[in-house]
Amino acid sequence: MHRGYWKIKILSILENKDPKHSCRVFFKEYAKCDSFDNNMAEIFNASIVEHIFKSITIILEDIFHSVMIGVALNKNVAYRLDQPTFPMILRKLEKGKNQSRWWQACPGGNGKYDVKHGSVGFVVDILDKTCTCGAWLLSGIPCCYALAVMREEN
After folding, report:
1. In the beta sheet, which residues pair with residue 104?
2. pTM of the predicted model, to two decimals?
3. Residues 6+ apart with CB under 8 A from 90
4. Which neighbouring-strand residues pair with 124?
5. Tens-digit pLDDT profile for residues 15-66
6. How many alpha carbons lie under 13 Å from residue 120 in its C-beta half-sphere?
7. How far is CA 10 from the centre of its chain?
8. Is residue 99 helix, strand or coil?
């Protein structure tokens, strides 16, 4: 089969998919995850590549053991932390804090702020912990616009 065949086949499959399962605008806000792309699938696929020629039961057992080892390692790291927040989250907050310095927050009342940089703007509701960019709702980590508001409040 040539490349064009597979391209047409993949496009026909994607045309029949409901966009609410793959488009960020349709994501539900109650699920909190800071990874919005296919990194999880990429990591998973990379982890099973060496097991591809085994039987399905052995593959599933290997996946189970890999996941259990990963959970145990993360648990050990979490127990050794001297702060309540994981270091990766702290790095994301620090990056957002650096990005927030370019944004100006103007209070609008009732915990709402208009955050602007030039002609681009977002509305942050600090009481509901939401932003019109949607990142704060999806990940649970304040976006740089919310951090601009927090900087303004302090």
Report:
1. 116
2. 0.58
3. 83
4. 113, 131
5. 777 766 666 666 666 555 555 556 667 777 777 777 778 888 888 888 888 8
6. 6
7. 25
8. helix
